[in-house]
From TrEMBL:
This is Biotin--[acetyl-CoA-carboxylase] ligase. It holds the Pfam family BPL_LplA_LipB. Keywords: Ligase. It is an enzyme of class 6 (ligase).
Length: 259
């Protein structure tokens, strides 16, 4: 399948990693997963100019405009599935630093639980992590899917979106690939070295809504509360209106006045 790639982009990514760009794919995560199941070892970036079936968290469609970044990183780390709690936060920090490398004002970029990145309060990037386990619960493979709005942002979304071009920054997919792959290598090494506390601390320093009241929506309930901190297992600890603390592991966070 790699023979259908238009161009080998491996010179853009860190040594020891490969990268392949396709003009169009159904989904970079789907392609990377297929390759993993066929025995591809990685580390390997699969990149696409467009996607016909891009996905976000919880099966949501990811609008895939030409000119934006769509990439998935295939890895086979010697880690247990239970070691993955800090992974989404490490990836979010890597994207944040890549955006800073592009020229985005550092103070304008925040990380939104569980795995979104915001510029001036609007979503610019999202992450979808998928994996497979062995019988002993170690990871068989890991696919980290990343979408970043470089030139276009979707309309009528649940959370307001923005792209770099709207902020006066024009950057090619190639240039962004170089920045992102380098930052991912650095932060993923922190995760592999099990430096979870450092990752959580870095994320919390730029976490959106910490110490503030937010609307929380899970699969079973909607409520408001003040975001307190990250739990040691990556859950979001929220102080409810009645003073009790609640930890959530899946859901969406919005401004308190979101209808």
């Amino acid at each position: 399948m790699l023979n259908s790639a238009e161009e080998n982009w491996s010179a853009l990514v860190p040594s020891g990693t490969e990268a392949f760009f396709f003009s169009s794919l159904s989904s970079t995560n789907e392609c990377a997963t297929s390759l993993a199941q066929k025995g591809e070892k990685g580390p390997l970036w699969i990149l696409a100019g467009s996607q016909s079936a891009g996905r976000g968290r919880r099966g949501r469609q990811w609008t895939s405009y030409q000119g934006n970044f769509f990439g998935s990183l295939l890895l086979r780390p010697s880690m247990k599935a239970s070691d993955c709690a800090a992974l989404p936060f490490a990836v979010a920090l890597a994207i944040r630093d890549a955006l800073i490398d592009c020229g985005v004002r550092e103070s304008s970029i925040q990380c939104k639980w569980p795995n979104d990145i915001l510029i001036d309060g609007c979503k610019v990037s999202g992450v979808l992590i998928e994996s497979a386990m062995k019988a002993d619960h170690s990871l068989e493979y890991l696919v980290i899917g990343i979408g970043v709005n470089l030139t276009h942002s979707p309309q009528e979304t649940k959370f307001d979106a923005v792209c770099l071009k709207q902020k006066g920054i024009e950057i090619s997919v190639k240039e962004f690939t170089r920045f992102l792959s380098l930052q991912c290598e650095a932060y993923l090494q922190q995760w592999i070295n099990k430096q979870d506390e450092a990752i959580y601390a870095s994320w919390s320093a730029v976490g959106w809504g910490l110490g503030q009241k937010r609307l929380i929506r899970t699969a079973t309930e909607t409520f408001t509360g003040v975001i307190q901190r990250l739990g040691v297992d990556g859950g979001l600890i929220v102080m409810l209106d009645d003073g009790r603390e609640k930890c959530i592991y899946a859901g969406d966070v919005f401004p308190p006045n979101k209808s």
